[in-house]
Amino acid sequence: MNFPQGLNPDEGSPEWMNKADSAWQLTATTMVCLQSVPGLVILYGSMVKKKWAVNSAFMAFYAFAAVLVCWVLLAHQMSFGAKMSPLVGRPGSALSEKLLLGPSRRGLVPVADFVFYQFAFAAITVILLAGSLLGRMNFYAWMLFVPLWLFFSYTVGASTIWGDGFLERRIIDYAGGYVIHLSSGVAGFTAAYWVGPRHSHDRQNFPPNNIIHMLGGAGFLWLGWTGFNGGSPFAAGLVASLAIFNTHLCTATSLLVWVSLDMLFYRKSSVIGAVQGMITGLVCITPGAGIVEPWAALLMGVMSGSIPWYTMMVLHRRFAFFQSVDDTLAVFHTHAVAGLLGGILSGIFAKPALLKLMYPDTTYHTGLIYSFSGGRHADGFKQMGIQLLGAAFITAWNGGATSLICILISRIVDLRMKEDDLEIGDDAVHGEEAYALWGDGERMPKPLRLHMHPRLPYFCRQRF
């Protein structure tokens, strides 16, 4: 084997590489991957009706594999390679040994660490988007959608904000509040519009099939966020430690606020609501995790547990705009709203000293609240303007690109399943069911469709 320059074949590591940073980066990447597989696979498979458990879980499972192949073949270089335009890099593969074993521009780690970590981010973005489409999207359409959306939507956001694009040295997006969450929320909502709603009965009655498993999947998501935000500095240093601390503090606060609001207004503590509050806390802290102080993370948790709760539980029911689109798992509220909120709050609470620690070679402006004390209020307002400009760009690009992709796919295959398949679910789509409840793996015979008296208890009627 020909070792790249600076590599000591006896030691197995080059002089420029920091072993601790590289070890942490590989650990953080694994944690982010576990958020998707098995985290979101379990969460999606248990948060939907039983008849959609297999299809929902498999949409996530397929996307994870498809994104990896597409990422190393073309998408990584489109996001982080040499620029082809101000918006995107030149397509190319990330399979070269010379490339992968060379030093990364993001810390003292090999490029291979960077490529795989960024793949994990890209994969979870597509899988989060899928939450808006569960329970009705044609799986063949989904198979086409994943690579197309990765190439023509995700890569542009990643390139412009993280890949030396026109926003990278201006906008504050520490770990993907805009690149990942705002984009997935907007794209999911847009795709849900084009795909159309679930079967009318499913839309009215869509209980989770296994709440305990749902909590298990949510747990993978929560704890995996340690790698999500802790790995973004590409170094096992002070910023990573602060980011992890802030992440869990904000998330716990958001969950408690959401549950408290549910109990205050509905007199019950909803487990599904607790999961939603957990997610909004994770999303909100992401763009500022390593560059805000803990007291700010606490405030961000209060707002992430209340503002998305209000948009989901109040505004969603009042506005026809929201009612007209069937967003299965409310991804717009948990990711687009929470991601936008986090981006704005990061512009308010970003501490100059932490910005300098995280980005020593860039010229970010100060957070708004610090600009007043330092006599730099113009810089603070300028940073807020950039945060809003970035949000507008990501929203417009993802909405437009997702619409064009859905229109293109609809010319090839149907975006939505046939009505007969929507009534059956997994068995019609995959020929498989989530649970073998009859015999030893044998399929349960189809029940008789008896006419039942409407006054029978609900659980009795369900047996027929």
From TrEMBL:
Compartment annotation: Cell membrane; Membrane
GO process terms (BP): ammonium transmembrane transport
Residues spanning the membrane: 23-45, 52-74, 114-134, 141-163, 175-196, 208-228, 234-259, 271-289, 295-316, 328-350, 386-409
Gene3D superfamilies from the UniProt entry: Ammonium transporter AmtB like domains
SUPFAM superfamilies, alphabetized: Ammonium transporter
Topological category with respect to the lipid bilayer: Multi-pass membrane protein
A single cellular component GO annotation: plasma membrane
NCBIfam families noted in UniProt: amt
Protein known as: Ammonium transporter
Native species: Populus trichocarpa (Western balsam poplar)
